[in-house]
Amino acid sequence: MSLSTGVRCPLDHPALKRFSTLEQSGLVQVMYVWIDGSGEHTRCKTKTVDFEPKDASELEIWNFDGSSTGQAHGQNSEVFIKPIALFRDPFRGGPNKLALCEAYDWEMKPVATNRRASCLEAMEQAKEQRPQFGIEQEYTLLDMDGYPLGWPKGGFPQEQGPYYCSVGAGRVVGRELVEAHYRACLYAGIKIAGTNAEVMPAQWEFQVGICDGIEQGDHLWMARFILDRISEEAGCIASLDPKPIPGNWNGAGAHCNFSTQVMRDENGLQCIEEAVEKMSKRHDYHISMYDPHQGKDNERRLTGLHETSDIHTFSSGVANRGCSIRISRKCFNEKRGYLEDRRPSSNCDPYSVTEAIVRTCCL
Question: What does DSSP say about strands 316-318 and 325-327: parallel, antiparallel, or unpaired?
Fold first, then answer.
């Protein structure tokens, strides 16, 4: 839901930009970022420190009003935020930082939407198997009225076909924002691997990985935060809705590529196939972990159409984008590599997704 129905407050006046270059008197701004009570969105607040932190562990635990983020009651509203990953700040530049945080309640127990805590437990148990991930994050650019950017108001563009990985006016919408996000992620230190225009016009994808264990969730959440901040400045919305436009239009997912060391080793294909078999027996569990509403969001997307499998049926195949699990042709021919789980929704929590895969395939 957007703040307004198309009205943007005109605060991007050039006169305001000059203040961002003022000297900071040896002080550093650290923006604390955390996942809010929706499990889908981030919040942030900034603290001044008198040193340039090199690691998240150097920063103190802070707190916020959890009654205003859906994470606490007003009578006991303080929620603690503990920095766990540190990135360079592409918005403020200089020594300033972005700190991704875990949220804890007054007893220092993880709040309901802190999925990182249980994910980290799984990754620690499986660390000898060296699980690695890469997630393909799809999203849709919307105007402030909630309609896809560049679409004719009240109407539809030409049907899907010309837009995937396309070039040229009339086919591509929002490339300037995509390029800004890509460069900001590189500056921040996020393991962004690439980007491309997707099948539906105004829909894009960026990839984060290869990441080891818990790092996948850390880097993808911060990449999402940066995407939202850039969209904020551009006056549009980067939606992670898995089916923003009903009908004959592609939805948006977060396909998760996964491997362990034995899968990557020579003749690892057998281990990949064994992992697929394990996943086939826990299909319902994975669906419940692959969107913030235990599969309800994915029901609109996983229909068996538009390059998806049916939500109620597990399937796998080689080079088949209509399956639950795809093994790439390259991996099949080389008999080693990784598998791609195509079921996670675009608004999934990557901590939940990677935890589910590790618990099924490794533990």
Answer: parallel
